[in-house]
Amino acid sequence: MSILDAMKQFEMMPDHYKGLSMGEMERRVAAIKEKFGSRLLIPGHHYQKDEVIQFADQTGDSLQLAQMAEKNKDAEYIVFCGVHFMAETADMLTGADQTVILPDMRAGCSMADMADMQQTNRAWEKLQHIFGDTIIPLTYVNSTAEIKAFVGKHGGATVTSSNAKKVLEWAFTQKKRILFLPDQHLGRNTAYELGIPLEDMAVWDPIQDQLENEAEHNDIKVILWKGHCSVHEKFTVKNINDLRERDSDIRIIVHPECSHEVVMQSDDSGSTKYIIDTISHAQPGSKWAIGTEMNLVQRLIQEYPDKQIESLNPDMCPCLTMNRIDLPHLLWSLEQIEKGEPAGVIKVPKVIRDDALLALNRMLSIT
Ligand code: 13P
Ligand code: SF4
Q1: pTM of the full structure
Q2: How far apart are CA 52 and CA 67, in angstroms?
Q3: Cα gap 81→43, rounded to integer Å
Q4: 346: part of which helix (H) or strand (E)?
Q5: Ligand 1 centre and the CA of 215: distance in Å?
Q6: 158-192 pLDDT per residue, tens
């Protein structure tokens, strides 16, 4: 189900929550957490706002959050502070007696919406016609449960930005070629890291229904779905050049959803967890520019005043959908649980879940 379809079916937060003071909301959230204890779990992705993350029981990148969801058998309610695909993943990895809730159904991911089932079925048919049975599909976890199910059914796996290299290596032991959905940048950056030249990668355009480049078909090893992250595409080579001109000592670290040119010009790249670990281990006094979502960059600036940290893009880049989850929505979803009327429940239908789990579990067993 696309995020737009999902939204139509769900109740929205009543307006009066927006008028509450921060102190009042914090008090009420804390009281419900206290009352429910281990029956309630609040996982929070690193891109969440501070007003939300202060109440997270667990924080992590998308791989860690998936692993934590899989391990937790106690929580009756999992109020997922992240985006829709992460909550779907948590639902699929938890038990039937556990309820996963997304506090605002508008918290989608524009990249995940760049690959739908009709486009994927059409692409698969055409690619099978061109390349025969030589392709294994992989999907970034930033995709709908239907796309994960498609990938699972065809022998493939999901990947996250922290395990993409390992999963691609595994995939090449299975088939000669990879179809990588839906983020062309993570696919290209990872394949390049594995030594695959850019000439051996092709881009599949799901709008035009065709391969974009003219490379000899037989040489193509990776077919990259033409999707991208609208937050990470805002980091440019010009940002890097401007910074280096201003300060030749600065180190630049970016998320691999940035373009290949940006990743190549940077000093380092990795998942949100990798970025956090790198900054936390860096020397006091060191200077860093970070190319990822604004809330995480701002949190790192606050947490490490002994290091000089800034955003690679001086205009800062927010993920608007991640930011939909705010304190009023968190409070509303907790109070709905307390009333016995949970709202924003994420339930992946069994027919999709079974195949999607094949893809998720393959990834989890590889990493
Ligand atoms: P991580 O897997 O690094 O947490 O990234 C998730 C994401 O959506 C980045 O845009
Ligand atoms: Fe999706 Fe990009 Fe937001 Fe990550 S930062 S959730 S990829 S839109």
Answers
A1: 0.95
A2: 21
A3: 6
A4: strand 345-346
A5: 31
A6: 999 999 999 999 999 999 999 999 999 999 999 99
Query: Within 6 Å (CB) of ligand 2, which residues are found?
Result: 83, 109-111, 142, 229-231, 257, 293, 319, 321-322
- Ligand 2 centroid from CA 279, angstroms: 21
Question: CA angle at residue 347 from 75 to 100, to 5 degrees?
Answer: 25
Contact status, residue 79 vs residue 32, Cβ threshold 8 Å: no
Q: In whole angstroms, how far apart are CA 49 and each of 28, 61, 91, 254, 338?
A: 18, 14, 22, 20, 23
Residue 229, Ramachandran bin (φ over 0: left; ψ between -120 and 50: alpha; else beta): beta
Q: Which atom of ligand 2 is nearest to the CA of 109?
A: 1
Q: Determine contact, residues 178/172, Cβ cutoff 8 Å.
A: yes
pLDDT in tens, 256-310: 999 999 999 999 999 999 999 999 999 999 999 999 999 999 999 999 999 999 9
Pocket test for ligand 2, best of 61, 322, 324, 325 (most atoms within 8 A of CB): 322
